[in-house]
Amino acid sequence: MAKTQIIFVTLQPILNIKQMILKHILVVLCLTFSLTASAQRQKTHKKEVSTVVEAYIDSLAKSKLRIDTLATVGRRTSEDQLYRLFIPLTFYHSTARKALAIDDSQWKNDEVDEAVNETMLHVYLNRPDLVSVTERDLKKAGGIREDFDKTVKPKVDLAEHVKPLPDEVEDIPVGVMIRKPNFWTLSGDGNLQFLQNYVSGNWYKGGESNYSMVGGLTFRAIYNNKSKLKVDNTLELKLGFQTSKADTLHKFKTNNDLIRYTGKIGLQATKGWYYTLQLLAYTQFTRGYKSNDSFVYSDFMSPLNINVGLGMDYAVNTLNGRLKGNVNLSPLSFNFRYVGRKSLAANYGIKGDHQTMEDFGSQLTTDLTWVFSDIVRWKTRLYAYTTYKRTEIEWENTVALQVSKYISANIFVYPRFDDSTQRDEDLGYWQFKEYCSLGFAYSF
């Protein structure tokens, strides 16, 4: 009996070696069989998914969730080996060496690691066609740097090259340009009108052919500081000529002749009302004649009228801005008249051997523009002066019809009253002037 035990103990290592050899032979046979079966399956293009692979696919979501959870809490365990289940299928030598090892004592016993290795080995044996890369290829490509969790310091200290900002902002000189507001407004308008009338020599009612031309320019310069002071300056220039075959003494004579300046300085009293000092001066350009008469009825500075009035001025703006202008009332007014030609002095109320006349009185000046539409507008000016012994009234009316942007037709009506002149048998002290014309007009 003792000899039998000694023999068994002696043969025990030999039996263990035989068992290991048989185990290796079985593993090699299994690998050979699986590779042969895989080749046959590839030739027939029939793919079968084993139960283990299906379970592997189903467990991907849960395993990924567990790995993310472990990474979040900062745990580093053997469960980190689960990454092998999610990356492209790789043949790991450690898995094969552990399966073929004679002595398992050198390997750590970890349930997660064992399960991963068994799963990988099962895939290697049943689906080797899924293996896309080996561990040797991964080593050639390089692994994860071991110093990835270390603080990376730049080679260049940027603080040495960048100048630090000053604690206090440096004073930088800034050029400030102050523009004084411009309170002046400049404007004006001009027109050139023509009138032609033809009558044949045998016209049954008689008559005479004639041609007429009238031109005018108006300049305005207004200062308004939007506070108290307002200054208005207006210069009007008008000159017109006409021809007549019946007039054998003159080739042409004037039908409209005016140089007039109106200046006002106003200090605002209330809304729309100004205390105003007004200056009005007017004369004409050239001589004035009548048909077939060589007598000069008027000339430059014959007469010259200057009127200075102190009173109130009201700015008119009504009918939604369609009626604009001003009304000036000067209870205290001084009028000066000068006649350069002595022969005309008596015609303008100057008595004796004088060429000038001065008197005091009251004055009213109204200047309004009423825009009826984009085509029709009415401009009127009323001037009245009285010394309570003599009276002078002028009322100018112009109705403008805007045919196009640059063409307009004008109707001019001008009644005048002056009881300082000689009385006419038919009209008394009234005088009347009127014309219609068509021509060019421009505003600027």
Describe the 3D structure.
- The N terminus is likely disordered.
- A hairpin with an 8-residue loop joins strand 5 and strand 6.
- 23% of the residues lie in helices and 41% in strands.
- It is an alpha+beta fold and 444 residues long.
- The strands form three sheets. The protein has a twelve-stranded antiparallel β-barrel with strand order 3-4-5-6-7-10-11-12-13-14-15-16. The chain has a two-stranded parallel ribbon with strand order 1-2. A two-stranded antiparallel sheet has the order 8-9.
Describe the structure concisely:
The protein is of the alpha+beta class and 444 residues long. It contains 7 helices and 16 strands. It has a 12-stranded antiparallel β-barrel.
Share of helix among residues?
10-25%
Strand order of the biggest β-sheet: 3-4-5-6-7-10-11-12-13-14-15-16
Specify the number of helices.
7
The rough form would be described as rod-shaped
Note the run of SSEs as H and E.
HHHEHHEHHEEEEEEEEEEEEEE
First and last CA, distance: 144 Å
State mean pLDDT (0 to 100 scale): 79
Rg, rounded, reads: 60 Å
Proportion in β-strands: 35-45%
Summing up helix and strand content along with how strands pair, one would put the structural category as: alpha+beta
Contiguous low-pLDDT stretches (5 residues minimum) are 1-15, 43-47, 70-76
